[in-house]
UniProtKB/TrEMBL annotation:
GO cellular component, one term: plasma membrane
Domain AsmA intervals: 1-597
GO terms classed as biological process: regulation of protein targeting to membrane
Lineage: Bacteria, Pseudomonadati, Pseudomonadota, Betaproteobacteria, Nitrosomonadales
Identification of the protein by name: AsmA family protein
Transmembrane segments: none
Source organism: Sulfuricella denitrificans (strain DSM 22764 / NBRC 105220 / skB26)
Cited InterPro entries: AsmA, AsmA-related
Length: 701
């Protein structure tokens, strides 16, 4: 053997012996636990946090350098309250690569991790001090980790700014090799629980992993993320996949697909999002197109919708844009006579820093043209604003015809105004022509404002049954739902209006109607029975339908000698009592409208009266008094001239759908006798007066 080689081997062997002896000496004499107070002090001085090292630190030197840590915990900044803790941790690494500033870790094992993160009302967090960059950054250190294992980890997030909490428990993490430009893999699973929204779900993530330290880039291969559990009272399943996704300061690229299924007692919703090609640089990226399909069932109704648009985002400014938005929406169901079909196009802008979103849309709602400007601000407590213009809208075309008897059999649904509790909205709505519940109007303009559990629609203006409508309506969620309505109708045709609004055919005429009412109740029926307020009518050139009072009086005259008692007849659509003017005011209490000042005029008759209209029961009990006046023209003609001054009581009773009219001829006859007696008295007085005058003249001759 060459002497040089021989001495060289001896030298290397000697060095190895010395090195091993040195390691043995260090292992025998060095106790890392002696430095625990120093470590605690440094952490307190540098970070103002309290570090507790409860267990012993154990070092190993063969076959690899390693350290076992017992229990340790770290406090919040400037506090003794625990921020994070672990039950145990073990790290083992290769020695020789350290001399080359390379960190080759065999395995990192951490067990029993727990941490608590708080976001305060001002937006600061409990880890802001840990996220600050050091003034001097150390030289980049190369590392190579064969695997990381984290077991029994738990994290909590207390968001006091948004007033919600989120908990992660049972977290398990396993990785393959983690080294620069070397393929690896990661697997993660945990339980997620939250209160706003209420959620309890199992989350799993798996992906291949390749990172480039110098480029500060990461590539995910075969990424799959799944979430399954409950949200509120329903279930949910969400899956996100990407065959390859690159993320770095110089390049963002990849494909994303997301599917979600939401289930509830009343229905389900399926969502599918596809981004075929997402590209970008740094924190700015875009997609030439993305599509979102939402399909589902709510009760018996079926929903189908699609949204597609180019997409751009800036994560530095937190701004997102949908530049050429195309959306379609289809709603159908057995309770709808016709499916609702909406097709819209436009743009959308979202700014997360300002917490607002704006949409500018136009399109069609079936045959109707629609334009809408929509806005949302303060995402945690949304405030909505809108400006919507529709040329025509027939809501009845989407509702089943439904027979009245069918509706009567169905139990009445309670009113639910709870949606008003957190509703904050402000907007305008304009509709060229509207039909709803068979009520027709045009040129509708209204303003809407909702906050604090109140919804106010004011002012409202519209062309309404040949006249105009102006007023306001308000809804209040005050435990028991409450509605207030104030309307002034001018120049309206009340006949067609009553037919369409209340299915009542009992009055004709043009004029004004004033209404100021409010009601409170858990159902529509209860609210009608609780109505309070006032109403007034002032009509011209109309008629009371269902009875011909003049005709009844004419018939009574023909039979006058023998007619006794009352004559009762059901309302007859062919009969009516004309008037040239009708005025009446009503005071409404507990759903009953009371009138004392009816005044109606016609060339032949004058009507007065008093009584009640029971709105809650849809019935009437009213006494009208018809008086024949001097004029001989008009309904009834000359045949009634002999009854001049006679008053006939007419009592109107029964439900609106079956009114009955009773004419009290006894009262009429009694009135006639009284008139004749009065006439005789006048004749006698006149005759006695003449005779007395004649007698007096004779005395003075």
């Amino acid at each position: 053997m060459n002497k040089t080689l021989k001495y060289g081997l001896i030298f290397v062997g000697a060095l190895l012996v010395v090195f091993l002896a040195l390691i043995a000496l260090v292992a025998a004499t060095f106790n890392p636990n002696d430095y625990k107070p120093l470590i605690v002090k440094l952490v307190q001085e540098k970070k103002q946090r309290t570090l507790k090292l409860e267990g012993d630190i154990k070092l190993t030197f063969f076959p690899r350098i390693g350290a076992d840590l017992g229990k340790l915990s770290l406090s919040d900044h400037g506090s003794d309250k625990e921020f994070a803790a672990i039950d145990s941790a073990r790290v083992s690494l290769a020695l020789l690569p350290l001399l080359k500033k390379q960190l080759v870790v065999d395995r990192i094992r951490i067990d029993g991790v727990r941490a608590r993160l708080v976001r305060y009302p001002d937006g600061s967090t409990s880890i802001d001090d840990l996220l600050k960059k050091e003034e001097e950054e150390s030289e980049q250190f190369k590392f190579d980790i064969k695997g990381v294992s984290i077991t029994r980890a738990a994290f909590s997030f207390d968001d006091r700014m948004a007033e919600r909490k989120l908990d992660i428990s049972g977290l398990e993490f396993e990785s393959g090799r983690l080294a620069n430009n070397q393929p690896g893999k990661i697997d993660l699973k945990f339980t997620l629980q939250g209160d706003k929204p209420k959620i309890n779900a199992q989350v799993a993530l798996a992906s291949g992993l390749l990172f480039d330290i110098e480029a500060k880039a990461v590539t995910l291969d075969g990424l799959t993320v799944s979430l399954a559990g409950k949200r509120g009272d329903g279930g949910m399943e969400i899956s996100l996949t990407s065959p390859k996704f690159e993320l770095g300061p110089e390049r963002v690229a990849g494909k994303l697909d997301l599917t979600a299924k939401m289930t509830q007692a009343k229905g389900n919703l399926n969502l599918a999002l596809s981004v075929p090609a997402l590209t970008g640089k740094g924190n700015v990226f875009r997609a030439e197109t993305f599509t979102l399909d939402v399909n589902g069932q709510q009760g018996e109704n079926i929903i189908k919708s699609r949204l597609a648009s180019p997409f751009s985002a800036n994560l530095d400014t937190h701004q997102f844009s949908l530049d050429k938005l195309v959306a379609s929406f289809d709603l159908s169901g057995p309770a709808m006579a016709k499916a609702l079909d909406v097709n819209l196009g436009g743009v959308a802008r979202i700014d997360l820093d300002k917490q607002d979103a704006h949409l500018d849309l136009s399109g069609r709602l079936d045959e109707s043209k629609l334009k809408a400007k929509l806005g949302i601000s303060h995402f945690d407590a949304p405030a909505y604003d809108f400006d919507i213009v529709i040329d025509q809208l027939d809501i009845d075309r989407y509702l089943p015809p439904g027979r009245p008897e069918d509706k009567a059999r169905q139990p009445e649904k309670p009113l639910d105004f709870s949606f008003l509790k957190n509703l904050n909205a402000n907007g305008r709505l304009s509709i060229g022509a509207l039909k709803v519940a068979n009520i027709k109007s045009s040129n509708i303009k209204l303003n809407v404002k909702a906050d604090g559990g109140n919804l106010n629609v004011a002012p409202i203006s519209a062309n309404f049954y040949q006249g105009t409508l102006n007023g306001a309506i308000s809804l209040h969620d005050a435990g028991t739902p409450r509605v207030a309505l104030k309307q002034n109708l001018v120049g309206v045709s009340v006949g067609p209006m009553l037919k369409d609004v209340a299915n009542v055919d009992m009055l004709e005429g043009h004029g004004s109607v004033a209404l100021d009412v409010s009601g409170q109740g858990t159902t529509v029926s209860a609210m009608k029975k609780a109505l309070q307020g006032s109403a007034a009518l002032n009509l011209q050139n109309g008629a009371l339908k269902g009875v011909n009072i003049a005709g009844a009086i004419r018939n009574a005259k023909a039979k006058f000698g023998s007619l006794q008692g009352e004559s009762t007849q059901a309302a007859n659509a062919a009969d009516k009592t004309d008037f040239s003017e009708l005025k009446a005011s009503f005071q409404i209490n507990n759903g009953v409208a009371h009138n004392e000042d009816l005044s109606a005029k016609s060339p032949l008759l004058r009507l007065a009266g008093n009584g009640d209209v029971n709105i809650g029961e849809s019935s009437m009990n009213y006494l009208a008094k018809a008086t024949v006046v001097a004029s001989l023209e008009g309904q009834g003609g000359k045949e009634l001239s002999a009854l001049k001054g006679m008053t006939v009581p007419v009592r109107i009773t029964g439900p609106f759908t079956g009114l009955k009219y009773s004419l009290d001829f006894n009262a009429m006859a009694s009135e006639a006798v009284k008139q004749k007696v009065e006439q005789k008295k006048e004749e006698i007085k006149s005759r006695l007066g003449e005779e007395l005058k004649s007698g007096l003249k004779g005395l003075f001759k």
